[in-house]
Design brief:
Elements (H helix, E strand, L loop, with lengths): L2 E4 L2 E9 L3 E5 L6 H12 L4 E6 L15 H15 L4 E6 L1 H12 L4 E7 L7 H11 L5 H12 L2 H6 L3 H9 L5 H12 L12 E7 L7 H10 L3 E6 L5 H4 L1 H12 L3
Parallel strand pairs: 3-4, 3-5, 5-6, 6-7, 7-8
Antiparallel strand pairs: 1-2, 2-4
Helix pairs in contact: 1-11, 2-3, 4-8, 5-7
Length: 259
């Protein structure tokens, strides 16, 4: 697994498959594999898939300080520069949606096509209140995981599970680690209103509806702010990567492989 130094961080990334370079950027969570690992094999049939673990993830090493969108965007840019000499197709999920939009604005020469998924331009009062509620439960891992699970997945998906035990298993994957807390604290501070208009890459903004974690209106605002962008909305909770994985892969591949 390649490892690079970016500022005060040591960032690792995985490379799988062959074809045009597709970079998958995680949001709040353990890291790239946790968010996209179940999709890599499918994407790798047509793409060279690059999956980084940015600061705040379990695999990254950094000083433990406050995260910034610009800092994470520079990590994405450094991974791209290390992995390839060609522009890439860039996907970012949730918090990663804001990160990849910033990366595309700051380094337009590195990005061919851009796909923010369940992303946002800035955190509003609802999100600040929701994240504040989540962080208030960081002393109780079970409660913390339950809050995140309830907001991340749609009621339809949660009701499809085999009872409360399965919900608790999902929640156990969402522990109040130091990295996740730093990521959530950054989510409260997200504000890329001065950057979105500078994105020049052809963009597909992907939203989920109903999305209780990053409400759909945030993706619509992202679409409105990015020139040359189109928009697609899934009938899904925030975790569309898990609720509709095959449909998501199909949509992304169709967008990045069209002439």
């Amino acid at each position: 697994m390649p490892t690079i130094s970016v500022g005060n961080a040591r960032i690792k990334y995985e490379v799988t498959g062959s074809g045009p370079s597709l970079v998958l950027v995680h949001g709040v969570g353990k890291g790239g594999h946790s968010a996209f690992g179940h999709l890599v094999e499918e994407f790798a049939k047509r793409n060279t898939v690059i999956v980084p673990d940015l600061s705040g993830s379990e695999a990254a090493e950094d000083d433990g300080g406050d995260l910034t969108i610009e800092g994470l965007a520079e990590e994405v840019s450094a991974v791209i520069a290390d992995a390839t000499t060609e522009p890439v197709d860039l996907v970012g999920f949730s918090l990663g949606g804001a990160v990849v939009a910033a990366a595309a604005a700051l380094h337009p020469e590195q990005v061919r096509r851009l796909i923010p998924v369940g992303g946002l331009v800035h955190a509003d009062t609802y999100m600040k209140n929701l994240i504040g509620l989540t962080l208030s439960q960081k002393h109780d891992p079970v409660a913390f995981g339950r809050v995140l699970t309830t907001t991340a997945f749609s009621p339809k998906y949660i009701n499809s599970l085999d009872g409360v035990d399965d919900v608790l298993k999902l929640g156990a994957e969402l522990s109040p680690s130091n990295g996740r807390i730093r990521q959530l604290e950054l989510l409260v501070r997200v504000d890329i209103r001065d950057l979105v208009g500078k994105v020049r890459a052809e963009t597909l903004v992907v939203a989920a509806n109903p999305d209780a974690a990053v409400p759909t209106e945030h993706s619509r605002e992202l679409h409105a702010g990015i020139p040359n962008s189109s928009y697609h909305e899934f009938d899904s909770g925030h975790m569309v990567l898990f609720e509709q994985p095959l449909e998501f892969v199909k949509l992304v591949n169709e967008f990045i492989h069209r002439p």
